[in-house]
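Protocol step 4 of 5: obtain the predicted structure for the target chain.
Materials: sequence only (see below). No template structures provided, no constraints applied. The aim of this step is simply to have a reference model before the mutagenesis design in step 5. Sequence pasted as it appears in the construct record:
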Amino acid sequence: MEPVLNDLNPQNAPAVMLGTITHNGQLEGQMAQAFYSHASQRHTVYNKAYPTSLLAAGCNRLWCEAINMQREMKWRYFALLHSDIVPELFWLDKLIALADQYDADIMSAIVPIKDDFGLTSTAVSRPTYSHNSTYSCWTRLTQQQVNDPAMPETFDIDMLREAMPNLKGALTLPDHVRLLVNTGCVVIRCDREWAPKAHFTINDHLVIGVHGLQYEVEPEDWYFSRRVAEMGGRVMATRAVKLAHVGKYDFKSTNQWGHRLDPNTIPV
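Step 4 output (structure tokens):
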């Protein structure tokens, strides 16, 4: 599908590139509205829906386009919206405002996983000194944790470390960990010095565990956020953008269900 320039702003605020990946390049219903007409009322949005079944490759193609066109378009932000996520109206404006407020390199809306366990795709990495630290994670945040009144609405790893002991699902974060965020509904600075050095990839491997052969994976979004943090970028997550992850029913980010604490949290 050819890019669509969605110019909703008479004041000509800086343009933003907004990408999504679908199997056939098509979006329907609420998801199409969230991507095209309801993303922003303050920014000129350059929409690009890219058809592919290779998620990391699709993200890299969109990311390259954002960086290559950055000087000409003078945009600061690249945004991604997954084709099964429906955020609130003008979600892009809220994410950009938060990123500007905190001078964040990545501002990611927290997305619940589409199951009954109440986990999210926002996580904490394993300590960088641990064995196989680049695979999987130390713990995922849960819907109960992120919606706890003691949890900051928007946070980086240091703010999370301070809040975690006060939550219903209380943990003490180990040292040398990073915040791993989802790219399902996110804005990323594409004008930083680190930008051409960052990319998306999926890391998989197999290990022998107590139950035999097991797989571990570092998904493309966790890899990307980890690399940005390693290069000095500020990675942040927020529950300020309300959304639904659409599956067998709508898994809403404002609801609490399932585990208080990720049962797969790794002892350190």
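Step 4 remarks: The first strand starts at residue 4 and ends at 7. Helices lie at 29-35, 55-68, 70-73, 91-102, 143-146, 157-163, 220-230.
Proceed to step 5.
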